[in-house]
Specification:
- The protein is α+β, with helices and mostly antiparallel strands.
- The protein has 2 domains: 269 residues, Fic-like fold; 178 residues, no CATH class.
- The chain is built from 15 helices and 8 strands.
- The strands form 2 sheets. Strands 3, 4, 5, 6, 7 and 8 form a 6-stranded antiparallel sheet that branches. A two-stranded antiparallel ribbon has the order 1-2.
- A hairpin with a 3-residue loop joins strand 4 and strand 5.
- Helix 1 packs parallel to helix 11 and helix 8 packs antiparallel against helix 9.
Length: 491
C-alpha cells in the first residue's frame, strides 16, 4: 500500500451542526458573566487535568480505571495517588507524573497561545511535539527492511525513519515517508490557513487532526499533538479543549479509520458532540454560580424581574418552552396513532381466558395535574447521561403502555437541563415494566434508557432545526423501545 497525499477540505455545505452553533451562541452570551469566577476557573483547571491525563491513556503511555483519573482530576497530579490508586511502583508513578505534567503544561499553554494572533505554523507544531516528549528518550521505529528497532527519540524534528504500524491482521498502515514529510506539513499548514475563514470549528478541527495523523510527521507523540491541534481550533473560538476519554477509544479510532477511507463525517460528528457536552457543563456551572451569589442581589433581581416581566431575556427563554410544547404534540400524536394500530393487533392475539392484550397512550403537558409523574425515572435516566434534570419550570410527558401478560411502558419526557433558567431543555426517553407488589400495588422494574444520546434544545436554535433533529432522535428512540419490549416478551 502506497502513501496517499493529504486532500483539501471537503465541501463546506456537507456538514451542518445547528445544535452546536446554537449552543455556542448561548455560551458566548453567558461566558462574560463567568470568566472571573473562582468556580469557573476551577472547572477549567479540572478540564485541563482531564485532557492531560486522558491524552496519555489513549496512547497507552499508562493505564488505569476511570476512578483513578477522577481522583487526579479532583486532587491534582500527584505520584503518590498514581502509585497508591493505580497500582504502580513509586518510581514509575513519578515518571508518569512527569509525563502528565508535560501534557498539562501544553494545554495550559494553548489557553495562553490563543490570546495572540499567530497563525498556525510548522514551528509551533514542532514545538508541541518537543514539549510532549520532554520526558521520553526513546521510541520504536521501522527500518527499511521492516525490522522494529528502538531509537533515540527526535524532539521537535520530523522523522528520519518510517513509522508505519502493522495492524493485527498483518497489513501495514502506511504513513507519509520521511522524504515527503516536510512538504506534506507545508501543505497541511497552507490548506488550513486558506480554509480557516470558511469552515466551522468542528470541521477544521477534525480535518486538521486527521490529515496530521495521516502524515504522522514525528517519530512519536503524533496522537497527542493531533489532539492538541484539535483543541487549539476550539479554544480560538472561545470554546473548550477536545477531551477524548478512554471510553471513547473505539468510536474515536473507528472514526479515524473511516476518515482514512475518505469520509470525515463520523470524526466531525464525534468532535461536535464532545464540544457540545463541554458547553452544556459550562452553562450548567454558570447557573449554579449565579444562584450562589449574594442573597441581597438575588432579592434585588427578583424585585426587578417583577417590574419588567417581559424583558428581552425572558422573551428569548420563552422560545424554548414554545419549542417543547410543539415537540410534545408531535410525540403525543405519534404515540396515539401507534397505540391505535397496535391495540387492534394485540387484541386479536389475546389467548383464550386471558385479560385482553391492548395498547394505549396518555400524556400530560406542562399545565396538567399529572405533570409530576415519573420523577424517579427521569432522574435515574439523567444520571446515566450525566446531567441535572430540572423539573421545576417545565415538565411534560407522553406514555405508551403495551399490555400482554405484563405491562410495558415507554415514556418520552421534556424537562429543564441544569439548575435555573438556562434556556436549555432536554428530552428523555425510557422504558420499564410494572411488577405486582405483595400489598396489591405495582412497582417499576427493569428501567432502561430508550435513547443512545442526550437530546437537548435551546432558544438560540430555530424550531425547524430542532424539529428535524428531534424527528431523527425520536425514530431512534422508538426503535430502541420496541426492541426492549420484544426482548421482554421472551421467556
Amino acid at each position: 500500500m502506497a502513501y496517499e497525499r493529504i486532500q483539501p477540505f471537503p465541501n463546506p455545505d456537507a456538514f451542518e451542526f445547528p445544535e452546536l452553533r446554537a449552543l455556542t451562541s448561548v455560551w458566548h452570551e453567558k461566558k462574560g458573566q463567568l470568566e472571573d469566577d473562582g468556580a469557573y476557573k476551577e472547572f477549567i483547571k479540572k478540564l485541563q487535568r482531564e485532557w492531560a491525563i486522558e491524552t496519555g491513556i489513549i496512547e497507552r503511555l499508562y493505564t488505569w480505571d476511570r476512578g483513578v483519573t477522577e481522583v487526579l482530576i479532583e486532587q491534582g497530579i500527584e505520584s503518590s495517588i498514581i502509585s497508591h490508586r493505580g497500582g504502580v511502583a513509586q518510581k514509575d508513578a513519578e515518571h508518569i507524573q512527569a509525563l502528565i505534567n508535560d501534557h498539562l503544561g501544553i494545554v495550559e499553554g494553548l489557553f495562553g497561545y490563543i490570546k495572540g494572533e499567530e497563525p498556525l505554523s510548522e514551528y509551533f507544531i514542532r514545538g508541541l511535539q518537543a514539549q510532549f516528549t520532554a520526558h521520553q528518550d526513546h521510541s520504536d521505529a521501522v527500518t527499511e527492511s521492516g525490522d522494529l528497532v528502538r531509537v533515540t527519540l527526535l524532539k521537535g524534528e520530523y522523522k528520519t525513519l518510517p513509522n508505519n504500524p502493522r495492524r493485527p491482521d498483518g497489513e501495514m498502515h502506511v504513513y507519509c515517508p520521511p522524504e515527503l514529510t516536510k512538504e506534506e506539513m507545508e501543505n497541511l499548514v497552507r490548506m488550513y490557513r486558506e480554509a480557516e475563514p470558511t469552515y466551522s470549528p468542528e470541521v477544521r478541527s477534525a480535518w486538521l487532526h486527521h490529515r496530521f495523523t495521516q502524515i504522522h510527521p514525528f517519530q512519536d507523540g503524533n496522537g497527542r499533538v493531533a489532539r492538541a491541534l484539535s483543541s487549539l481550533v476550539f479554544l480560538r473560538e472561545g470554546l473548550f479543549p477536545l477531551v477524548v476519554r478512554e471510553s471513547d477509544r473505539t468510536e474515536y479510532i473507528g472514526a479515524l479509520e473511516t476518515a482514512d477511507a475518505g469520509d470525515l463525517s463520523p470524526l466531525i460528528s464525534f468532535f461536535a458532540r464532545r464540544q457540545r457536552d463541554s458547553i452544556l457543563k459550562a452553562i450548567g456551572l454558570e447557573q449554579q454560580v449565579q444562584q450562589s451569589k449574594y442573597a441581597d442581589q438575588i432579592i434585588s433581581s427578583a424585585l426587578e424581574l417583577l417590574k419588567s416581566r417581559f424583558t428581552r431575556e425572558q422573551q428569548k427563554l420563552s422560545l424554548v418552552f414554545d419549542h417543547a410544547d410543539k415537540l410534545f404534540s408531535i410525540v403525543d400524536s405519534k404515540f396515539k396513532k401507534l397505540a391505535t394500530s397496535l391495540d387492534n393487533q394485540l387484541r386479536s392475539l389475546t389467548p383464550p381466558q386471558r385479560q385482553k392484550y391492548q395498547a394505549r397512550s396518555n400524556a400530560a403537558n406542562n399545565t396538567s395535574p399529572q405533570r409530576h409523574y415519573f420523577q424517579k425515572q427521569i432522574i435515574e435516566t439523567a444520571n446515566q447521561f450525566d446531567y441535572f434534570a430540572n423539573c421545576d419550570k417545565h415538565r411534560s410527558w407522553v406514555r405508551m403502555t403495551l399490555t400482554t401478560d405484563q405491562e410495558f411502558d415507554y415514556v418520552v419526557t421534556f424537562h429543564g437541563y441544569g439548575p435555573g433558567d438556562s434556556g436549555i431543555l432536554a428530552a428523555s426517553a425510557f422504558t420499564y415494566l410494572k411488577a405486582p407488589r405483595e400489598d396489591g400495588g405495582t412497582e417499576t422494574v427493569s428501567l432502561h434508557p430508550a435513547a443512545t444520546d442526550l437530546f437537548q434544545f435551546n432558544y438560540a436554535e430555530t424550531y425547524e432545526s430542532t424539529q428535524k433533529r428531534f424527528a431523527e432522535w425520536l425514530e431512534s428512540s422508538l426503535a430502541i423501545a420496541l426492541a426492549e419490549w420484544k426482548r421482554s416478551l421472551q421467556p
